[in-house]
Design goal:
Helix 3 crosses helix 4. With 321 residues, the chain is α/β, with parallel strands linked by helices. Helix 9 links the parallel strand 8 and strand 9. It folds into three domains: 97 residues, Arc Repressor Mutant, subunit A (Orthogonal Bundle), CATH 1.10.10; 108 residues, 3-Layer(aba) Sandwich (D-Maltodextrin-Binding Protein, domain 2), CATH 3.40.190; 99 residues, D-Maltodextrin-Binding Protein, domain 2, CATH 3.40.190.290. Helix content is 45%, strand content 20%. This is LysR family transcriptional regulator.
Length: 321
């Protein structure tokens, strides 16, 4: 209803007419205004008459030698200058956003990925587009999906959910699960069969975390019962307990980046298992240029990791399948 009322109230008034009136009001000359707008004086006069007819008031009093604003003209000049300034700012901001000079993208991300992959992605993206801000919100997979579905975030970076319910998942890489054991007393074997964990003190994520659900399935296939002695969300806390000799844990490789692993030994899990990590978006949601740019940038950044050095190559090693 509001849109209909606004359309009716502005009927017959165009931006072209408003700019013409403001130019005349500034120059106080039809000739100077016509030259500035690159139109004839007769076309200028037509626009002014159309605007006055649409408003129902006289805005300008013109003599052969001068142009004066009427009382209504002075009032209109003040208000329309403010409106045009606001419009110019909106146009400038949108053009800057389209050119990736400004704007933002809000991303929900798993805590383990927020610690490992996102700092590198954000740093590289900021170097390419310093005016664009990435806003992070850490969340577990289910919460991240809910944020995407509600429109609270533009995208999420997470493991593939069992049920997408209309959302779109774009795979980026496979994140292999590894066994983290206490270094003291551990064998030097590079692989640990899941059956060998029978009777060990398991330190795992609690139920409700997608990793725990994946591990429950793996243990069930091996006819093993999952009975963890400790259940913690934090990967760093689980690794610290392993280092102190309280048991073993199973984590994705990316979750280990930056953690204190001197008291631990890392072994591959047999049979091999992993989670798919990717971007989740809402297909029908229109995306701003910064969001589209980030969505395109992340896979390209991951693909370019082998050509980079230092921390980037370490991140590649952690995320490679």
């Amino acid at each position: 209803m509001g849109e209909i009322d606004t359309s009716e109230q502005l009927g017959g008034v165009s931006l072209q007419q408003i700019v013409t009136f403001l130019t005349i009001a500034e120059t106080r000359s039809f000739r100077a205004a016509a030259e500035r707008l690159h139109i004839s004086q007769s076309a200028l006069s037509v626009r002014v008459r159309q605007l006055e007819a649409a408003l129902g008031v006289v805005l300008l009093h013109r003599t052969t030698r001068s142009v004066h604003l009427t009382l209504q003209g002075r009032s209109a000049q003040t208000s329309l200058q403010r409106v045009c300034s606001d419009l110019q700012r909106v146009v400038r901001d949108l053009r800057d956003e389209a050119a990736l000079q400004r704007g933002s993208a809000t991303v929900a991300v798993l805590p383990s990925l927020a610690i490992t992959l996102l700092p590198g992605i954000m740093q590289a993206f900021a170097e390419a587009h310093p005016g664009v801000e990435i806003r992070l919100r850490d969340a577990d997979s289910k919460s991240a999906l809910a944020m995407v579905r509600r429109g609270d975030v533009d995208m999420s970076i997470q493991s593939r959910p069992d049920q997408l319910d209309g959302l779109l998942f774009e795979r980026m890489f496979d994140d292999e699960f590894v066994v983290v054991l206490p270094r003291e007393g551990a064998s030097s074997r590079k692989r640990v069969r899941i059956e060998e964990l029978r009777g060990r003190s398991l330190l795992l994520n609690p139920r409700g975390v997608d990793l725990r659900e994946s591990l429950e399935s793996l243990f069930a296939q091996a006819a093993l019962t999952v009975s963890p002695t400790q259940e913690l969300v934090s990967s760093s806390a689980l690794v610290a307990l392993v280092s102190a000799g309280f048991g073993v844990t199973i984590l994705p490789k990316t979750a280990l980046s930056g953690l204190q692993l001197s008291g631990c030994r890392i072994a591959a899990l047999d049979p091999k298992a992993s989670r798919e990590v990717g971007i989740v978006v809402k297909p029908e949601r229109s995306r701003s240029p910064p969001v589209l740019a980030l969505r395109t940038f992340i896979p390209l950044w991951l693909d370019a990791l082998p050509a980079q050095a230092g921390g980037a190559s370490q991140a590649r090693d952690l995320s490679a399948s």
